[in-house]
Amino acid sequence: MPPWPRCSLMQWTLPSPQSEAAMEQCASVEREVDKVLQKFLTYGQHCEQSLEELLHHVGQLRAELASAALQGTPLSATLSLVMSQCCRKIKDTVQKLASDHKDIHSSVSRVGKAIDRNFDSEICGVVSDAVWDSREKQQQILQMAIVEHLYQQGMLSVAEELCQESTLNVDLDFKQPFLELNRILEALHEQDLGPALEWAVSHRQRLLELNSSLEFKLHRLHFIRLLAGGPEKQLEALSYARHFQPFARLHQREIQVMMGSLVYLRLGLEKSPYCHLLDNSHWAEICETFTRDACSLLGLSVESPLSVSFASGCVALPVLMNIKAVIEQRQCTGVWSHKDELPIEIELGMKCWYHSVFACPILRQQTSDSNPPIKLICGHVISRDALNKLINGGKLKCPYCPMEQNPADGKRIIF
Amino acid sequence: MAVQESAAQLSMTLKVQEYPTLKVPYETLNKRFRAAQKNIDRETSHVTMVVAELEKTLSSCPAVDSVVSLLDGVVEKLSVLKRKAVESIQAEDESAKLCKRRIEHLKEHSSDQPAAASMWKRKRMDRMMVEHLLRCGYYNTAVKLARQSGIEDLVNIEMFLTAKEVEESLERRETATCLAWCHDNKSRLRKMKDLLDPARWRMLIQQFRYDNYRLHQLGNNSVFTLTLQAGLSAIKTPQCYKEDGSSKSPDCPVCSRSLNKLAQPLPMAHCANSRLVCKISGDVMNENNPPMMLPNGYVYGYNSLLSIRQDDKVVCPRTKEVFHFSQAEKVYIM
After folding, report:
1. pTM of the predicted model, to two decimals?
2. B307 CA to chain A: closest CA distance, Å?
3. d(CA B108, CA A347)
């Protein structure tokens, strides 16, 4: 692969996508597909209708001939004429059907052309094709990463299937917490709140630190379910309401709403202003709340590392492919450095700043162990290479303030 | 979501990633259209032939019953034409509708509602993973994932399953299915009639797989793999690979166990501008949280130093040395 030249890249501006033009790519293909669908519809109706008519017509003729004592007699001239006309009509109709269908071909191929025009048929890698190709090892690690991701996303059966198909062995230690979570989630899907409540109570302290309202929500759902049971459940519901006591301060309003709904128990909640309590969405929501809180307790972010890396790739890929095309087009063979570094910065947003990066403002290079950042006496920070370059007659003048200082006074810092 | 993607960025990515999503159902549409045309042409010519026969008979003063029997023939051929035409149109309409469904799904990337947008992104990753798993040959996993994620319509499972059938039959030393595939796709595989040694069969399977991908314009690597590689590079920094592991970040994906190994041979991110992250809190160090250097050279955010200050002293989390809070000096990053 050609090395990435660095120096003159900054001069080139990447094409800035305009939102409307970009949306156009889908709309453009859709237009052609819609046309084809319309043509199929029209053609299909027309085809069926014409053939129906023909069959009807021929059927009538046949009935006429088969009736009365016409057998054995020669065909009358009139009938013969009618038959000839019928034959001509049949030939014309079916031949037209065939050629009408052929006419749709250009619309169909226009769909393909729209796709070719608006989407890139070739996708290329950032690195050489074979970088993960020591087939066994890296592919296995990738499979493992996918399995870990699936566990974290709560897709346990898929994860298990992958382990089986790829003959991967996952540490029981790693699996264990997910197995428990999944057990609880499956119970929740069956509207069984027991395991979840048990879990919430045993993790109460840490959940409170998280400001989680999971335990309350679980009690609330149980209460609502009792309400849905009708007037016979009233006593039980009232009795259950004591579970709300510890949450009285934080969730006062919600408790009031629920107690208020008791009034309508006899009439039926569905017809009351409290009908929203019976929404099924509460069940979906509790699963999400539980998953989120459980992941936090496990020290896992909601998004798995694989998710974040993939999303980052979605941003990086078009930018890198663009640059690669530009480089190849201009056949740039300028001085390059760091072929083990990407040729351009990828903006992912501040949430993706996981490590400190210090780029020397003078030499515009990332610092490293061999070229660390140095704090000058005035507090400004530059790389050691830059510092060495600035030494003049044993003294050093900071480029940002007129302070002259001794090079030896520079202090190595670690971020 | 951790990674910010603007609508414009999403569109650029669409252009680069989604060619197979649309082209594969299009190829099916094309194939079914041609099959439909062939069927209609064939049945039309049958009808025409039978009608021609009838016309010939008419010109020779026929008896009624011979005309009736010929008419029966015409009715039959017309019925067959009608049936085949309806079937064929249904088939091609179905593939056109699939194209439509996929493009409609792709359009949803620009949804205004954040819930819909993040659902779309989740599905995008699942779609690419399904394709990747199919390429690896993990068909059951792929099907399960597609079902669970609700994306069965949006991934090219059928194409890979057809390929799987062909491969399996080749492994059984049978060429029939493969030949049918060749005929279907007019590929250039050779007809094997003699017994071949295992190596030739292996090669044949590889060749088939390669040709199948090329036919559908799929490269050697899955879109998922290529995207992931780019993504890992964009996040990778030297700190992820420090020998003593002291600079690892609990939130950094590249610092996580599996991804750390995967990202090793990949290029690092290019950072033209400095950005500083406090090792204690993970927060950005800027004018709102200025970077402060302790006498041992380690830098932390001002806010973090405040939070770990006890009795006017701070303990450096990395070296455990104790300093006075006032010994922290501000550093200036341009």
Report:
1. 0.82
2. 17
3. 23
